[in-house]
Amino acid sequence: MHQDKMTRADFRKQIRTKRKQLSDAFQQSASQQLIHQLSRLPELDASQHIAVYLSADGELSTSAMIEWLWQQGKSIYLPVIHPFSAGHLLFLHYTPDTEMAPNRYGIAEPRLNKQLIIPTRQLDLIFTPLVGFDASGHRLGMGGGYYDRTLVPWFHNRSGAKPIGLAHSCQFVEQLPVESWDVPLPKIVTPDKIWSWEQSDA
């Protein structure tokens, strides 16, 4: 199917298939290359409270990245599906001892504990999962809208945590179909480069 005719669902299916075909050795190498790129990311030095996610479905592995961030003395938080507010996320402090439980998608998340929750506005960075991205920085998610809702304050007035996408290079496409609510990410990090669409970096 020609890219001009492809829907968001078509792109989602195509890219997820491509991503799942990556070998374990490739994934391991990519996760180490990701750390090298992150070490060049200026935002990290000034950030203490950082949201990450546990990778699934062939996503770029974040386990080595999380270990590395702990070594840098950073506080790490993981997303938890909000139990009462449909379609929203909470972020809970994550350490090597955090008690985990599978969510409705079968992805491990911290067991809900109110004492571990950080208000999203107090996060410095939110490393954001994505299925695909394009040359304008538009992000194609899984379709649940969780991160779209989480990042509204940033997209509207640049307040709160700064979102930075993480992806394999093979998740790039020239142009995604865009909806009215889509706002490009300021940066996306792949194992081979840091993509930036910020005016100050132009």
UniProtKB/TrEMBL annotation:
<keyword id="KW-0460">Magnesium</keyword>
<protein>
    <recommendedName>
        <fullName>5-formyltetrahydrofolate cyclo-ligase</fullName>
        <ecNumber>6.3.3.2</ecNumber>
    </recommendedName>
</protein>
<keyword id="KW-0436">Ligase</keyword>
<dbReference type="GO" id="GO:0030272">
    <property type="term" value="F:5-formyltetrahydrofolate cyclo-ligase activity"/>
</dbReference>
<feature type="binding site">
    <location>
        <position position="59"/>
    </location>
    <ligand>
        <name>substrate</name>
    </ligand>
</feature>
<feature type="binding site">
    <location>
        <position position="54"/>
    </location>
    <ligand>
        <name>substrate</name>
    </ligand>
</feature>
<dbReference type="GO" id="GO:0009396">
    <property type="term" value="P:folic acid-containing compound biosynthetic process"/>
</dbReference>
<feature type="binding site">
    <location>
        <begin position="139"/>
        <end position="147"/>
    </location>
    <ligand>
        <name>ATP</name>
    </ligand>
</feature>
<dbReference type="GO" id="GO:0005524">
    <property type="term" value="F:ATP binding"/>
</dbReference>
<keyword id="KW-0547">Nucleotide-binding</keyword>
<dbReference type="GO" id="GO:0046872">
    <property type="term" value="F:metal ion binding"/>
</dbReference>
<keyword id="KW-0479">Metal-binding</keyword>
<dbReference type="InterPro" id="IPR002698">
    <property type="entry name" value="FTHF_cligase"/>
</dbReference>
<dbReference type="Pfam" id="PF01812">
    <property type="entry name" value="5-FTHF_cyc-lig"/>
</dbReference>
<dbReference type="InterPro" id="IPR037171">
    <property type="entry name" value="NagB/RpiA_transferase-like"/>
</dbReference>
<keyword id="KW-0067">ATP-binding</keyword>
<feature type="binding site">
    <location>
        <begin position="8"/>
        <end position="12"/>
    </location>
    <ligand>
        <name>ATP</name>
    </ligand>
</feature>
<dbReference type="InterPro" id="IPR024185">
    <property type="entry name" value="FTHF_cligase-like_sf"/>
</dbReference>
<comment type="similarity">
    <text>Belongs to the 5-formyltetrahydrofolate cyclo-ligase family.</text>
</comment>
<dbReference type="GO" id="GO:0035999">
    <property type="term" value="P:tetrahydrofolate interconversion"/>
</dbReference>
